[in-house]
Amino acid sequence: DILLRRGRLGHRRTARPKMLSLASSYTAFGFAPGAAAAVLPARRVMIAAASHPAMSATGTETLDFTGGALRNNKDLTDTDLTRMGRRARPNIDWSNLRARLEVEFGFKEEELKQYDDVSKADLLKGYEMMQLCRQFENACNQAYMQGHIRGFMHLDNGQEAIPALIADAIKPGDKAVSYYREHTHALAKGVSPDAIMAELWAKDGGTCRGTGGSMHIYDKETNFQGGWALVCEQLPYAAGAARSILLDRQLDPDGTKDDDRIAVVFVGEGGAQNGRMAECLNAAAKENLPLLFIVIDNGRAINTFTPDVAANNDVFEQGQHYGVPGIRVDGGSMEQTLKTGRAVVDYVRTKGPAIMQVHTYRFQGHSPADPEHERGRKDEKKWARAEADPIKLFEADEAASGLDLDGALKSVKAVVKQSLDFARESPPPPAELAKELEFPDAPSTDYNARPPPAGADAITRATTDPEALATCEAHVAELQSLAKRGEISIADAVNLAVLEEMLRDPTTVCHAEDLQAGSSYNIPKLTQQTFGKLRGADEIIDEGHFLGKAIGEGMNGYRPIVEMMNTNFAIYAMAEISSAGNTFATTGGQFQMPLTIVGAGGTAPNQALGAEHSQPFHAYIMGIPGLKIGAAASPDAAYGMTKSMIRDNGPCFLFLPVKMMKETKGHAAVGECMPINKCKLVHKASDDAVAGGRAVTVLTYLHGLKECQSVLPEIQAEGLDIDLIELRSLKPLDMETIRDSLARTHKVAILDESTNSGGVGATVSALIHEQCFDLLDAPVKRLCMDDAPVPYASSMEVAVVKRGSDVVKAVFDFMLKKI
What we know:
The protein is an alpha/beta fold. 40% of the residues lie in helices and 13% in strands. It has 30 helices and 24 strands. Helix 4 packs parallel to helix 12, helix 18 (466-485) packs across helix 19 (490-504) and helix 21 runs parallel beside helix 22. The protein is elongated, with a radius of gyration of 31 Å.
């Protein structure tokens, strides 16, 4: 059973209710203006309204799908509806929405008057957008069945009032971030229908040149920023986009004095149950971000009825804890959606974040492959198409009288036909494009030649407190002195690189936990004290959240640095790291991703940190495309590689040895960027050892470098020697340096700080066998961590983690031909 509000498509037995007072309107519809007033659950709204004497005498009729009989809604309870997988179409009219805007959003009566009417011209534009979306999606469905569109595709039929709102209230400069059901959102934002259709057809003329497909529509020109396929991952990206607007205003106050841009993010009512929603509401409230959350509430997951898995479906109330107002509107009414949306968008432009929950019915299944048989879904959708279609409802409404609806429909059909013709005629992308889009910058880029933005120094000085700037510059000078004297630690070398780059380029920003105090190793020290809270952001404890915000900033002209207190914590950000690596390619090269992630990690022998803090996260992310991965075990490498990665236009991850951050000290070449695609020959075996066949190439990284250096005298004491190569670039791998060494030694051991299965050493070993097999006199010897979790007790840990003594044994075994 489902409660039906009978309008022009049905009949109503009672007269339209009289206008209620503000208090009675709110009480009847589930929200109360006074602190003492009871707030009813939203799903009881219809029952409350029916029982209110001013609302109804006999109740709203309900259709029983099974028996086809009309029943009074007083015969049904919330439990009945939920058990049957049904829900009411909300019976909320403009007077109730107006009251909510007054009480929760703080609008005054005079301000609300401007939203009371929508002009005939705007109504026609809204109808035309709804029809464009409907006809476009119908064409997509047909093309999918014909095999022109492949993979996953998610259609939006039944939810067209939302794109009508976007086209009506969202400006070209506003940033829109959506999820995988985004075709209509892109259309409403102004993205070319031709380009969208061509993208779905995997053609070179598509928005992303055929690299993204249905779930990844992007268009830089119209500020449409996805199309993200992982449920609710888009939320922190939108928060980052909103932060970029505030950063623009901070760095260019004169040029943005009239700036009223906002960011809008789309999320389903199910996705809004994810923890990312709470994190982003907190961020939006804390920084007063110009961010609008549009919650598309169609009541279903793929088939599951949302109340079956969510205790509270009133997503619009989630912001109460953070002071973020919210409102729910019936998406079956385009006019009410436009009125409410205009008010809410104006609120976000002038005051701060807000939530707008739009109640809809999605006519099609989750995708064309959806069997549509769960919980009476076919019956529900049959009813929804007949009774809850926003297009049909508008066509039957008095507001549509006198409008040229037929002309609008004819016009959009011509647009859709043109998009199909364009997609059909557009050529497929060339095969070589895939490799071209791997990295925005070639791995061989010389970052020393990359200039700062125009006027950077003047912007930095104009937007930074002089006293704080002087303190920072004094600290930088002190660290530079330590670097020149060979006394700087790895941690301080990274802090020096970060501060130098933030001084050099005002678009550089930093995110970290405990940032104000310098985090665990002082990497972000003085960033917030010098550059303020926007450029130096102290974060809540969720790495995925603040890395996600950094992605949003990176897509909008900034160079975020994300410090992971410990790189193992980045496990919480695996989805975001994956998307960062994919973004440049998935967007067809439209959006670069200048993102630097840096942190201490790895597994030193006898480090006594236990399994969770000793995971080889660097190995976990080796398979992520588009990501440059480095490891630095010395101050000079840490400093020079950090600077280069910050200047790179793609995502980079620099791993540092957790047990060497403060104790290892040395020189750093001040002001110089270091290659991030090269190994380092740290020690070269003597010519005598090479000539006598007594030399072995040893490859290692992180703590392994210290381990190998510590046993080098022991190896040399036996008349043996090694080419010791530090793998500073884990991806891409510098096979040239490795091959040059193997041409001398013909034997190689890898001291690997990752596991036997799926480790870095496994990848390196495979590449050596594939590319340098002709140079080998023996198989590659991997000295890697055991697959068992790393124990805390040293007596057990020695059986899992390899060390210098294992290198000595491997070298001797090579000489004894045991390998």
